[in-house]
Structures are given as C-alpha cells and as structure tokens.
Amino acid sequence: MHIAAAVNSFRYYSRSRLRARCLSTIGNSKSTVDIKVVNGEGTETELRKQQLWLHNTMSKQKELFIPKVPGKVGMYVCGVTAYDLSHIGHARVYVSFDVLYRYLNYLGYEVKYVRNFTDVDDKIIARANELGEDPIKLSRRFCEEFHQDMTYLHCLPPSVEPRVSDHMPQIIDMIQQILDNGCAYRINGDVYFSVDKFPEYGTLSGRKLEDNRAGERVAVDTRKKHPADFALWKTAKAGEPFWESPWGPGRPGWHIECSAMSAAYLGYTFDIHGGGMDLVFPHHENEIAQSCAACRESNITYWIHNGFVNIDSQKMSKSLGNFFTIRQVIDLYHPLALRLFLIGTHYRSPINYTIVQIESASDRLFYIYQALYDCQILSTQHDEASLKDSIPAETANCINKFQDEVLSSISDDLHTPVALAAMSDPLKLINDLLHTRKGKKQALRIESIAALENTIRNVLAILGLVPASYAEALHELREKALKRAKLTDDQVHQKIVERDTARKNKEYDRSDVIRKDLAAVGIALMDSPEGTTWRPAFPLALEEEQVTVP
C-alpha cells in the first residue's frame, strides 16, 4: 500500500464511511456515540493543523517545523558506505528517518526524500582488494543487500537514491565552483577545502578549529595549509578506480559527494538534512562549509541526528567483538521486533541493545499481533452490513485518548516510546471485549472491536509496524522463538503430550518441570478447555538471571 493511502486512513474505520475519531464529550449522558462522517477534503484540513516540533542540531533546541515551500518537504539523509552488510546502528538511522518520512506523509506533506549510496570510498577499495573484486561491483552488491535489509525492516524506499559513481559531473562542477570562489586550493592533482576561508566553520558541532580531528577517514597530509583542511578531490592511485577531472584523474573526497547530490535533487536550500550523531562532525560540518562556499544562498533549515547504539552498555564496535549486523539479529528475531525495539527509545537518546531488550520487544510484538488477529477473526464472522454506525462511549473515549496521545507524542520530536505506551489501553480493552465474561456481553461489542483494531492498525502504519498479515507475522514469530529455543514444533507438542499424561497420572511435579523447562527457553504453555497450546514468551531463564544480578 502506498504510504499516503496507508497513513491518511488513520482517522477512519474499516468501513470508509465511518470516522475513527468519535466525537464524544466528557460527561456525555448517551451510552453510545455516533461516528461523524468526514470527507477526504475535511480530513486533509484537519491533518494539516497538527504541528510538528523537531530538535535542530544547529540551534540545539526543538523548533516548530515550517517547510520552505508550503505543503512540500525536501529531506536528505546520508546513506551507507556500501562495502559490507549493514549493522544495527545503520538500522537505527534509517528506521528513525523512516518514521519521520511516514509522519510527514501522514501530515499531508509531499515529501521528496533523498538517501544516497557512497559507492566510491577508501573502505570500499580496501575491501574489494581484500576479496579480489571490482570496487564498483562489490559496492553494487552490498547496495542490494542494504535494500533487502530495509525491506525486512519496513523502511519505505526514498524518492531518489543517488550513487556517487553516477554523479561525477555534478561533483566536479561543485569543486570547480568552490575553487573559483577562492575557498579551495590544488596540490599536485589533489584539491583541498580551506577551512580558514569559512569563518562559520564549527557552528553545527560547536567545535573550534584547534579541536578538530585532522585526517578523518584519510591519512594526515602535511602539505595542507591547515590540519583541518579536507579533501575535495584525490589524485588517482595505482589500481584504484578514477575519473577524469580538470585537476587530473582521481576520485572525490568523502564529504563533497553529499553536498553535490543533495544540491542536484533538492537544490542548495531545503528543509531537512539527517543522519547519525557521528556525522555531525566532520561530515555534516564539512558539508555546510563546502555547500556555502559553492553557493552563498545555501541553507538547510533543520539538522536532525539520531543517537548511538550500545551493546550491553558498551559502544558497538568490531574491535570489542560486540558488533551485530541486521542479518545476525533477524536470523533469531522477527525484523519488526528489531524495528519495535529501535523505536522503543527516543531517536536522539542512546539505545542499549541487549538480549533482554530484544526479547521484550519480540514478546510485545506477539501480544499486539495476537490481539489484532483475534479482532480480525471475530469481525469476519459477522456481516459488515449488519453492524451499526456507532460505538459505546467507553470505546470512543479510549480511541480519542489514544489518538490524542499518539499525535501529541509523535509531533513532539517523534516521541515514539510514548506513542507505543499509549497502545496499552486500547489493547487491554480489546482483550476485555474478546475474552472476559463482562466484555462478551458489551453492547456493540463487534463494532467496538472493529473500531479499536482499525485505529491501532493505522497507528502501526505510521510507525511502520503493519505486517503483510497478522497470521503470517504470528507464524514467523513462533518460528523464530522455536529457533532460539533450539526446538521444533513437533518437539514442543511432544512435551505437551508428556505433560498431559503426567497430569492425568497426577504426576504434578513432572508436569510442572515440563512447563518450567519450556518457559525457561521462551515457550509458554497456555491451558484452556479446548486443550493446551503454546506461544512465544520472554524466557524464564532470562528473568531469573535478572533477579540474581545484584
């Protein structure tokens, strides 16, 4: 489903004539609340009233988002350097900005989202030499792997995905403009940006020139006029890919590529530039300098950066042996459990990846999908035409409160943890209506269940958590749980049979051991009059470990 279609249905029930935001008032004496019919034009007007506040790294404070062109947004997010499989730090960047992209679409903006690939870089060349591959072909292969990872994580494709190797004319033209404006100099085929020519250098990061790290991503070059000067163009070396330029054969430096590609697709002035916190300096600082040196009118309104990912409270790094690729994580956990984990912490805060945290996210995801799946099953058992266009006041109030909390939290600098927490009340109401004696007797029960399911599903669409089908997602979550437990479904059912036999024989200690052994590895047994089934659960062994930790 197209994003605009998915998220703009947020305020509607499954029946298009019904509006999900029930117009109830506190103290309403009516036991039910009619659902107001609102056409598409009216809904669009309401959506546009929602204000969005974003933290701007440049100003170091939250600011009201006002696009340069009313109704349109230009957003550039720095992409990966494609030389290996992407890790969960990459996942956090692109999930964070995917939520922003989805929410901007929900608010009714026409968004041009540009995310680049760096396919020309020292790291790519080094890896290609190590594997005996052509650097461009190697990078192309890992670009496709990245696309697959983004599909797994439900990250929508950007509007444009430019690659460095396809934009050499634009890069060369920008370098020439910077030279013509007196902000760069040549040394034996290399071209360097002169930071002394840009007095505002350091404004984004708050660094002073004397604090800057010389030689980021490259060896220190003593030929430079200032240690912080950075390469715009590097002369060709033997065995490396190169392109012809006015300064001789070579390839671009790291920073210039994003300035050139963002200008090519969004112009020199646009709304949002984003990436990980590690890009504030030197990458984005250098981008600002060279873009302004090429065009005095260059201006980006909002600089947005997400926080780091730590592993068990340590910085993630290959040298520490705590480096996890996206593929490694989703081999054992559902990709949307990883996404839920990532948006469960505010995007600017550091996030700590632990087995406990990802298990909790997986367990929560199963709970959400099971509740919504049960809603769908019940709803399909009733003729839609027989349903009324009203719901009880309790349900309407729950929906209104939920939607207000979601909109206010996401509009407050994408506070997704608050939006996720707000889901608890409507989920509890769903389970009451589905499973409790009182809930099953509730007037307009089916209408309430349909309304609640649809409302939650549309919030999940904004968060990128709607699966292809609840049934399929539940099956995948069960399969991942079995893999983590190192069991098969047949083995679990054999344990259930053994436990049933033990209970019939009044061997209750044996029965409890079987249940506890399965619970220890994340398999929870569920007894009912129809028999015993199982579901994934937070492993009891992990709970016990947490209790024993001082």
TrEMBL record:
<feature type="domain" description="Cysteinyl-tRNA synthetase class Ia DALR">
    <location>
        <begin position="405"/>
        <end position="474"/>
    </location>
</feature>
<comment type="similarity">
    <text>Belongs to the class-I aminoacyl-tRNA synthetase family.</text>
</comment>
<dbReference type="GO" id="GO:0006423">
    <property type="term" value="P:cysteinyl-tRNA aminoacylation"/>
</dbReference>
<keyword id="KW-0934">Plastid</keyword>
<protein>
    <recommendedName>
        <fullName>cysteine--tRNA ligase</fullName>
        <ecNumber>6.1.1.16</ecNumber>
    </recommendedName>
</protein>
<dbReference type="InterPro" id="IPR014729">
    <property type="entry name" value="Rossmann-like_a/b/a_fold"/>
</dbReference>
<dbReference type="GO" id="GO:0005737">
    <property type="term" value="C:cytoplasm"/>
</dbReference>
<keyword id="KW-0648">Protein biosynthesis</keyword>
<dbReference type="GO" id="GO:0004817">
    <property type="term" value="F:cysteine-tRNA ligase activity"/>
</dbReference>
<keyword id="KW-0547">Nucleotide-binding</keyword>
<dbReference type="InterPro" id="IPR015803">
    <property type="entry name" value="Cys-tRNA-ligase"/>
</dbReference>
<dbReference type="GO" id="GO:0046872">
    <property type="term" value="F:metal ion binding"/>
</dbReference>
<keyword id="KW-0030">Aminoacyl-tRNA synthetase</keyword>
<dbReference type="GO" id="GO:0005739">
    <property type="term" value="C:mitochondrion"/>
</dbReference>
<dbReference type="GO" id="GO:0005524">
    <property type="term" value="F:ATP binding"/>
</dbReference>
<dbReference type="GO" id="GO:0009507">
    <property type="term" value="C:chloroplast"/>
</dbReference>
<dbReference type="InterPro" id="IPR015273">
    <property type="entry name" value="Cys-tRNA-synt_Ia_DALR"/>
</dbReference>
<keyword id="KW-0496">Mitochondrion</keyword>
<dbReference type="Pfam" id="PF23493">
    <property type="entry name" value="CysS_C"/>
</dbReference>
<dbReference type="InterPro" id="IPR056411">
    <property type="entry name" value="CysS_C"/>
</dbReference>
<keyword id="KW-0809">Transit peptide</keyword>
<keyword id="KW-0067">ATP-binding</keyword>
<keyword id="KW-0436">Ligase</keyword>
<keyword id="KW-0479">Metal-binding</keyword>
<dbReference type="InterPro" id="IPR009080">
    <property type="entry name" value="tRNAsynth_Ia_anticodon-bd"/>
</dbReference>
<dbReference type="InterPro" id="IPR024909">
    <property type="entry name" value="Cys-tRNA/MSH_ligase"/>
</dbReference>
<keyword id="KW-0150">Chloroplast</keyword>
<keyword id="KW-0862">Zinc</keyword>
<dbReference type="Pfam" id="PF01406">
    <property type="entry name" value="tRNA-synt_1e"/>
</dbReference>
<dbReference type="InterPro" id="IPR032678">
    <property type="entry name" value="tRNA-synt_1_cat_dom"/>
</dbReference>
